[in-house]
Structure formats: structure tokens, C-alpha cells
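Job type: complex structure
Entries:
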Amino acid sequence: MTESPIASHFIRTRIDEDCAQQTYGDKVVTRFPPEPNGFLHFGHAKSIFLNFGLARDYLAQCPQSICNLRFDDTNPTKEETEYVDAIREDVSWLGFDATGHEFYASDYFEQLYRCAELLIQADLAYVDSQDADAMRATRGTLTEPGRNSPFRNRSITENLVLFRQMRAGDFPDGTHILRAKIDMAAPNMNLRDPAIYRIRHAHHHRSGDAWCIYPMYDFAHCVSDAIEGITHSLCTLEFMDHRPLYDWFLDQLATLDVFQRPLPQQIEFSRLNLTYVVLSKRKLIQLVTGQHVHGWDDPRLPTLKGARRRGFTPEGFRLFTDRIGVSKSDSLIDYSVLEDCMRDHLNDTAERRVAVLDPVKLVLTNYPEGQSEECYAPNHPHHADWGKRVMPLARELWIERDDFMPEPVKGFFRLVPGGEVRLRYGYIIKCTGFDQDAEGRVTCVYAEYDPDTKSGTPGSESRKVKGNIHWLSCDQALAAEIRLYDRLFSVPAPGARREGDAPDLDRDFLDDLNPNAMQIHTGMIEPSLATAAPESRFQFERHGYFVADQVDHTAERPVYNRTVTLRDSWGKK
RNA sequence: UGGGCCGUCGCCAAGUUGGUUAAGGCACUGGAUUUUGAUUCCAGCAUACCAAGGUUCGAAUCCUUGCGGCCCAGCCA
């Protein structure tokens, strides 16, 4: 696999500067902060490799470096424990162990609360008793300033009492809210007295019913970072406008001696955009709940769970994140880049096997009935030490339907009537005829083999044929379910308007679903593929990379998923 | 139309305290090897940095003015 060198990017540059100036001493502390309200997707893989990768890379230079896994669970109505477990699994699948540095924002509720009281006491926060509609109405617009709330000038004492009553559960949801007192006329909307705490009488997956007020993201995130001693808090571009608020909270709290400087700094990078998929939580949920796919781990889904079942590898993702880099420009990565990365890794690591996906019978008419002999197939063309396996050859074989054309098109150099081709690892054969059914579908192909051309025997090299096809003897082959996966959507930008669309046309991304994203075949496989463990990955020669299905594959009923095809300069449709 | 950010080869992306010939990867093209139309190997691939002006001996890098794209008006994160 081509190992790309560690690429320089603006975040590394910043960290290098901080290290050079000893801003944070001997540490680079990052964090991966998922909200446990959904499954991780390809976009998270970028963030995971960035955050965990950075901490790991700087370990030699800054021995205290680490990356925390922090569950950002400040919204009790959306989060669940099942997601926590799934996320932890995904992170570890990608190769990062967060044992000992796994945290929860909800563990900081008490500290967060104390910080809020301190802000109130410093006259930097107040309890607003407007309802949500009134708040929205007075927030102003992008071009007009907002108006101060009539409750903005409550006394510190009154604010404190009210806030404590909020915590005590004296008020129903939505009646009061704690707001930062900043500037209702700020051009940055986030600074127009943002909400800090809302009342939510809801059961929290970890804190249970201990709380009925919960902190908002802007407040909880920066404080959590400071508590954990994060040095570089990396997030995506849409949070850029929140940075002044992030700095404001921390600055005030540092002034109030809650935190020591230097404070963590937020740095934004552009999120992953990939063609032919959707990466928004909302759309992913729609696909699952709308039954367009079979659950969160459906191999068609761009979730990490789906990727795993699909046969994608952590190393492939690692390669991918290295290749696409990190920057602040909105980019759109072609899906083929991801596929290429998986091929790249799998090419090196997957043993070769033979499978006939769409079998048609081939009879070697001059091969004695009841006889069979051994042929040898290497497990990997570039790793002789991986050994070889025996493939019995006999009179009746299965070959790929696509490898025979009764009426060949130009450029086709596989089996054709009267033509010659090599049975891979076996003999050169010459097609002598074929049977068709009433619909013209080929039902059987006949050929004669040349006994002097067996692979590996002296003289077998003397005759060259261009075509080379794979096969399986009918006696040996086992039937298997082969799930051929393809891209989930049939257009690069699902749901996006396309050239020529009527001005009033609204497209639905679900209409762009690729109906052929999964096709189930019954194919023939080598016996060793049946006994392989779930999640074993192989290259099916001349087809692509396949993985034994994580949940459905058994020796009795083998199931293989196609991860990605081989590159194909001929059959590209 | 307020604020923030971005615009370097088909796709990514270095370089942006101005200094000879604009890194690298992917894709692509050509050639070699090859019992996977795979892999591998070798070679090629931006007089050009959104545009137009300007400053300068010298600019992708500085200035000006435009153009294009993304984000923000949740008691979501």
C-alpha cells in the first residue's frame, strides 16, 4: 500500500507554533466529541483520524499528548446509551482505544452549573422569562440588530434565585432560560445573548433525573474542553461563528479564576463532502427509518457500521483521510477516491480466491469422465510465502457467464466459439460449441483442452493466449449468497437540482436512490471460503474484494459481500 | 443587502512574514512487466495561482475593486 507521507496542513502548522513557543507545555490534547444521538459516519472518520491521529503523532515531541473521547450529551431528549456503545466500538474499530480517557459532558453538569452561577454573580448572565417565540422575535435578523429582553436588567440576586429555582424544578419547560449578557446588537448572531441553560424535565441517559436544567452546546463545550485541559479543540467550519462565544465564556471564567490560562483554542476545518452519498444525520435517519436500507449497519450506508459490514477497512479510511488532507476550503471528494483507498489496502492484504458469480457450465469434452487432477493457485501473486492452494480440475466446470460470448464484440478476448483461452492455473482450452435455451441464453459451453499446456509444467509457457478465465470444478464448488453492493445513490449530489430542472422543481434525495445498490446472486465458491470466519476479506480474482458477512455468514450458508470491484479498464459501464 | 470564511491542474492540496524553473497525492495519458482486461514499474501531466487594475527590480504571496461559493436568525450539536 502506498504510504503517503504526513502531510503538512494548517492545523499542524498551528500546533507546531504552539509547541515552539511552549504555549501549552509538553502536550497536545485534542478530543473527539460525538453527540450520542446517532451512528458515526464517514465524516466522523475524518475527525477521528484527525484528532486521535494528531495526539498520536505529537506523542514523541510532546509526551503528554492525548485525545479524549468525549460524549457531548447535554440534550437529554435525543441521546441514548445504545449510541454510546456503538460509537465506542466504531472508534476502537478504527484503531483508537479511549480506555481511561473517555468522558461525558454530563459528568460536568455540577461544574457547569457552578460556572453559570458565577457568570450570574458577575452580572454576565441573566434569567430571561420570555418564551421561545418572543426570544426569536427580539433576536433581530442578519441585517437588523436585536432588542434587549425586558428581563435583561434583573438584579443579580433575583437572577440567582430564579436560576436556583430553575434547578430545583420549580418551573415547567420553556418558562425561563438562562442567557449570557453580551450584546443584542452584535453582528454575529451568536453573541446576541445566547441561551446557556434551558429547562427540560427529561430523563438523561446517564444523570437520570438528577437535573431538569441542561446546558447548551456553546456553554458546555468550551467549559468541558477547559476542564479536560484540551489544547486544540478541532471542529468543522460551521462553528467558526461560535468561536467568539467559545472564547468569551472561557475568558470570563478565567478572569473569575475558574480556569487557568492558557485556554483551549478552537480551530475549524472543512467537513467531509463525498459524492454519491449523504452524510447528514437527518438523511441517514430517514434512510433507516424509512426502510430504504436494512438498519444502521446496512453495507450500502456511509456509516462506519455499514462500512465495516461492507468490508471497508480502518487502514483504508486512514489512507483516505491522509489523501484528502485537511483545510478550510469546501471540498467535494469523489466517491472513487474512497474506493481506491480500500482497493489499495485490500490489494496488499487480501488473499486471492476464486468465485463464479454468475455460473454457466463448461464441459471439457476430451477430458475423461470421473477423472480429476490438482492445479495450484497462489494465495497472493506478490507474496509467494503466503502459499498456494489446490484446485481440482475435472471434466465439468463452472465458468463466468460474462467470460463467454457467442457473438463476440470487438476487443473481447475471453472465450468465443472456436477461440482459445487459458483456464487460469490450468490448461489452454478451445471452444468447440455451446447450447442455448429458447430465449437464446447460453446453458452450456463445450471445449477441448490441450494436455500439453498445464500451468506450471515445462512447455506450458510456449503457447500464449491473451484470454485467461477463472473456473471452479462442479464437484468442488459450493453455492454461496453473494451480495453485490454498489453506490447508494445514482447521482453525485443526491437531492440537488440538476441542469435543466424547472425553477420550481424541488428534488428529494430519496428519488436519487440507486435501485441496484444491492443485488443478490447465488454464486459458486471455493470450499475454503465457506469455512472462513465472518469478516474475512478476500479478493475474488478478476471480480473484486469481498468480505464474509459479519452477521449472516456461516459455513453452512456462506454469505459474501462485495466491498468494491477491481478496477476494470474493459468492462467499465 | 449584517457578520464570518473560502477560491492554486479533472479531484484534493502545499506554498500566502513577496525573490531563481508553482511541492505532493489521486485521477488521467503513454510505455514496460504480468496466467487477475488487476497489481507493479517507468514517463508525461498548471508560463499558471477566481478576475481586473495597482505597488515593486521582482507577487500565487502586498493594495484596490469586482466575481463566485459556503456558513449564521434552535430553549439542536
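Summary: The radius of gyration of chain A is 31 Å. The mean pLDDT of chain A is 96.
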